[in-house]
Amino acid sequence: RVPCLDLGRLGDSDEEDGDSYIPYSGSYLHTCRLDSFSDWRTSLQTPYAQHHQAQQRSILEHKTVPENLPSPTDRYKLKYHQYEADMKEEYKQYSQRIAEKKKDHLRCPEASIKGTQLEDGHSDDLTALDEKALLQQCYTSKPYNMQHSIRKSEAEDVAAERKKQTVAEQVMVDQLSRAVISDPEQSTHADVGKEAHGLLGFGTAPMRFRKRTLHETKIRTKSGLTENMLSNKLRFDSRIISRNGRDACRELIGFFFTCDRSLTVYEFRKFGKNRTNALPFIQKGVYQHQRGQKKGKAYDLSDFYIGANLTFRSFDHNLPESFKQNPVLTLRVISIDEAAMDFLKASSMEFKQECSKQVIDNSKIFKKIQGLCVLRETISKRGVRVITGLGKYFRHIDKNRNGFLSQADFKEALKVFHVEVPEGDFQSLWLLLDDSKSDKVDYGEFTRAVFGEMNEYRKAFVRKAYMKLDFNKTGSVPMVDIRKCYCAKKHPLVLAGKATEEEIKLSFLETLGESCSNPNEVSYSEFEDYYEGLSIGIMDDEDFINILRNPWGI
Length: 554
Fold this sequence. Notes:
Strand 2 (252-257) and strand 3 form a beta hairpin. The protein is built from 22 helices and 10 strands.
């Protein structure tokens, strides 16, 4: 029960300092009653609330400084000076710690952006676009979150292994369970002869259209595959070398069977969020090289290694129309099952003999041209402008839109971009590339032969970044989407306060748009050429990966 409140008995205590007295005649009685009521209410509150209110009251009281205050004592002055010195020292140490932290994380040399000098002391004569493109290389100095990267890569490895296991199981099902039913030789010779002479009758459907089961059909098949025979296989991942973004990003998993030296390639496709399927891309069979020094020879185990090219005739397979523009389909091996390769090497003596006879003159010629000092100096700091500019120039003069150009076209292009290649080396390179003697060479292959290309580890991240942008798998990405997805928060210049996010983003969009035939959209080949130019001069793979991880979040 709350006692009755008698405000008439309340009065000032001796402990009060008298600051609450307000010399206004009209409001004295009212103010005194309010203060007395607040004191009574305070007595009913918790100690924490009383302490909080006392702090706020002291703050309000210090806003009004009373007059005629006594001067502070020497002891108080000494304490104040010590407190002031301690605060200054703590702020100085805090500033030093922040500066050291920024220095560790923001080692982006400005000299690499402006005023870059060659080793001989001469200026690079970089254009504004070159300097803006080099801004992207500063991401190599900002270390990516390694713990996050490791967790993410482990999750991706688990998903990739499940994907490969799904495709391997589908291959075994197709080759064993359906081998007899789908064998094209299951029709008997007598039925084939009757069908050829029209003796089967009008009401009888041809054998290939009839519904048959194993126990009802007289099947004559040469297929004698068993699970034990098919288990001796080499699994490899591959990609299509194509300027079409949709085709270049297809996920292909192939298998080479040592029992009959046949191979097959499957495509892993995802429908929606949860539905996946493995579909045959190249049917199982024995295939031969279509290009190079081994042209006409069947594939064997020595032909499968990271970076190897597998060539097929496009018209021999049921492929989309985009592949029919080029008579030869080229697949690049990007990874292999090392454990299976070691097992098959140990059990195959022919592999060692084949490897000892393998000719590597082609690679020697490529390395000789790519190692020219004049060529290295030309693209040391202008890689983005040279690589993307050549690609844009080739696409402009390619009137037939088939990707092939003549020898005169390539010489003119090298002259326009001031890329000097000796005549003898150029002719040797042309003889290797023009193996069909048609005086036409694919300009993508020509660019890779002259300037080299990224390794497959780097290209995998470039494809991953592009697939994140091209989520509809249309083969081209609008520049508006790239602007939305690009994030410059982790750029060293932004963290150092020397540039804004919008400035870094605009510099990237300007250099990327300059390399595109259509400034409103970016194709896969243009996106790849841009990062191909950035990769020149970056020796460490992880430094290059940071250029993709930080702005795209992959």
